[in-house]
Amino acid sequence: MKTKKLALFAAGLAAAAIGLRMVGCGSARSGRTTAAEKVYVAPGELDKYYAFLSGGQSGSVFVVGIPSCRILREIPIFEPRAAYGYAVHDGDPRRAELAATGGLWGDTHHPVLSEKNGVYDGRYLWINDLSNGRLGRVRLDTFETDRILKIPNLQGAHGIAAVSPDTKYIVVNGEFEQPTDGLVTNPAPYTSVVAFVDPEKMEVKFEVRVAGNIDIADTSKDGRYAFSTVYNLEQGKEQNSMMVFDRDAVAAIDIPAAEKAVAEGRGEIRNGIPILDPAEVPGIMTLIPVPKNPHGVNVTPDGKYVMASGKLSPTVTIIDTKTLKIVAEPEVGLGPLHTTFDDRGNAFTSLFLDSQVVKWNVQKAVKGAPDYIVDRINIHYNIGHLQAVGGETMHPYGDYLLALNKLSKDQYLPVGPDMPEAQELIDISGEKMRMLASFPTPPEPHDAVFIEAKILAPKVKQVFTPGPEAIAAGQESVVRTGPHEVTVKMTMTRSAYTPDHFEVREGDRVTFQLTNVETIRDMIHGFALPDHDLNVALPPGYTKTITVDAGKPGVYWYYCTNFCSALHLEMRGRMLVQPRDSNVAIPDWKAAQNVKGPVQGVPSTGAAR
Ligand code: CUA
Ligand code: CA
């Protein structure tokens, strides 16, 4: 009884406390809101930022709204994804491109955005496929992958960066060293290359050889240098032999000097790409010694310093980007991996071993002041990358930081031995960091980049202007174009396909030219054809052309895979595949539609009707 009374009393106190808090909400004027309020985006309201998280071994990019942490979309890049009709069926040109350049899967790590005058312009996103040495490009007006590039002479495409301030190149680092002479028969030393890719044409312009490997990339804000961490300066081939030296390096490639050397024809041409060797072209690369097996490399927003995080050393090395000299090497904690920045001169470094983010003041560290550490916050668990909003640009926003964590352990309901990947959103607007929210994703985001919604959202296309290949309503047709070829020009709108049936023969190749003739946004129609490995999704105004084999004789219902209306289930039609030796004439589908009763030449009984 007494206990009950006490409990009631405690509840009363709690209520009073809540009341006080509510009153204290007046102090919300001073900007202090609860963590829940900071991430709450009410139904119908929109997020302030888009975050693009690499999908890791999902081969994709996850689009997340910040601060709500809601997952808005997945953009498939290196893997087929039926939900978006991406590279699903055999005849899809994108599928063929993926297959030809390394396979139908990828391992994406580092998303980077196009810049104009040092500011994100919302045109493109690029991301690496580490495993197959590729670079993918996503158009941000459609959120669709538009190019895949296989990088020659390079294995393990790891760090990438857009060269500031106008995206002159995308830099791609080859992590896995290869025999320098390109042969396995001659045990040459192993080296790597940094590739410089033209971002519009998506072709490699030149490569620079590095004696060692190359890991993470960033560039100076003025476009002069491409910086990369080198953790295997030893050129070791086994793990132990990669950890011999006390110092490895940051490689600083002088981009204008390299361009000049290429123009003078000083590169060795391999697979059509000039490769510059700094041993033969002095001055194009400087190796700056930094402690043991460094990982992240990040340039400060003002462009003054580049920082290498120590990984096996508890330090961050601060290097002057003009002189390439080390100016300070502050200790920050155990296992420093990456560093990001706010707009007030602070750096935030992820500490993998300590499972923390440490906030520290750059100027104080440079001056050797003892109180450069500002704050630490615990992460759950083993943080890899971290990114503050705008931290990669010259104008960080200084409000949110995303921690991308390797392990989630007890943070979510168990879902088998493989736990969800975890991200944590941290408020960095005050002196002290504050944990706001945590959200899981499928495997396995490595890194993220943000763009303000007010920059990107107006550029996002939701309805396409029909191109010259589009089929207009009333222009549909089924035409035999060869002895074994049929072209079906089809339109789709709520909630029917035109034509809603047609006939072909076993052995035919059937080309579908499909147009979604809708003109309002968010009215996607799908087109799936059972037993033909075919599903596409078409936004309004969009046309897609796909060719498939007719397959075995039978009736195949094509149907809409994107819910579109109350008659979504009825949105279907038939492909009638006649046996090869059938002597039944294939009627024109329009004529067939006008005929009452059994159509001439089509069996009046059985599955075909
Ligand atoms: Cu069209 Cu569902
Ligand atoms: Ca090393």
What labels would you give this structure?
609 residues, mainly beta, five-stranded mixed β-sheet, 7 helices, 41% strand, disordered N terminus, binds dinuclear copper ion, binds calcium ion
Short summary:
The chain is 10% helix and 41% strand.
Please tell me about this protein's structure.
- With 609 residues, this protein is mostly beta strands.
- The chain is 10% helix and 41% strand.
- It contains seven helices and 41 strands.
- The strands form ten sheets. Strands 8, 9, 10, 11, 12, 16 and 17 form a seven-stranded mixed β-sheet that branches. Strands 32, 33, 34, 36 and 39 form a five-stranded mixed β-sheet that branches.
- A hairpin with a 5-residue loop joins β1 and β2.
- The protein starts with a helix and ends in a 15-residue tail after the last helix.
- Bound molecules: dinuclear copper ion and calcium ion.
- The site of calcium ion (CA) has 10 residues, from loops.
- The site of calcium ion has 10 residues, from loops.
Question: Helix and strand layout, with pairings?
Answer:
Layout: H1 2-24, H2 35-39, E1 49-54, E2 60-66, E3 70-76, H3 93-101, E4 112-116, E5 119-129, E6 134-139, E7 144-150, E8 155-162, E9 170-176, E10 178-179, E11 190-198, E12 203-210, E13 217-219, E14 225-230, E15 247-254, H4 255-263, E16 268-270, E17 273-276, E18 285-291, E19 297-299, E20 305-309, E21 316-320, E22 326-328, E23 336-341, E24 346-351, E25 356-361, H5 362-367, E26 373-378, E27 383-388, E28 400-405, E29 421-427, E30 434-441, E31 448-452, H6 453-456, E32 477-482, E33 485-493, E34 496-498, E35 501-505, E36 509-516, E37 525-529, E38 534-538, E39 543-549, E40 554-559, E41 572-578, H7 589-594
Parallel strand pairs: 12-17, 33-36, 35-41
Antiparallel strand pairs: 1-2, 1-31, 2-3, 4-5, 5-6, 6-7, 8-9, 9-11, 10-11, 11-12, 13-14, 14-15, 15-18, 16-17, 19-20, 20-21, 21-22, 23-24, 24-25, 25-26, 27-28, 28-29, 29-30, 32-33, 33-34, 36-39, 37-38, 40-41
The structure holds dinuclear copper ion (CUA) and calcium ion (CA).
